[in-house]
Amino acid sequence: MGANRMLGIAIEKVSALIERVEAFDAGLEETDEADDAGSERRFDRLDDFDDDIEPEDDPAHRELVEFIDTLNLDEQIELVALAWLGRGTFDRTEWEEALREARDGHTNHTGDYLVGIPLLGTYLEEGLSQLDLRYH
Asked: Is residue 61 included in any domain, yes or no?
């Protein structure tokens, strides 16, 4: 794969997703001052949210999932492969293999899958970097 390989998804869409994911992550890291015990509570994707709030009920989570789910099939597959590349599941020489596996494993729950990956924004940025592309 050459360094000039073009993605099948516009860099602007990936950039918009990274920005939304970063904003979402920042919101999850805020502390909850209204905790009955008076202690701070930190939310992250590795834990369940507050017992009363399921992730799919969170408007920010829903917006991210919907953004991804409105992308066409090829764009969704590229995002999954890009996230895998960024987290080291595949390296840049295995890009075509990552795309094949993402296509073979595709479901109608790509948005939920991707939003559930901790550090998604970081992985997408790193994936772009591995392909010699820039996030902006």
From this structure: yes
Query: Is residue 2 assigned to a domain?
Result: no
Quick check: is 136 in a domain? Answer: no
Q: What is the largest CA-CA distance in the chain?
A: 56
Which has the higher per-residue pLDDT, 46 or 21? 21
Whose CA is closest to 55, among 25, 92, 77?
25
- Prediction pTM value: 0.76
26, two tokens: 């920042």
pLDDT tens, residue by residue, 60-103: 889 999 999 999 999 999 999 999 999 999 999 999 999 999 99
Please check whether residue 130 is in contact with residue 92, taking contact to mean a CB–CB distance below 8 angstroms.
Answer: yes
The residue written with tokens 């909850």 in the block is 32
Determine whether 66 is exposed, middle or buried from the number of CB atoms within 10 Å of its CB (0-12, 13-18, 19+).
Answer: exposed
- Phi, psi (rounded to 5 degrees) for 106: -60, 140
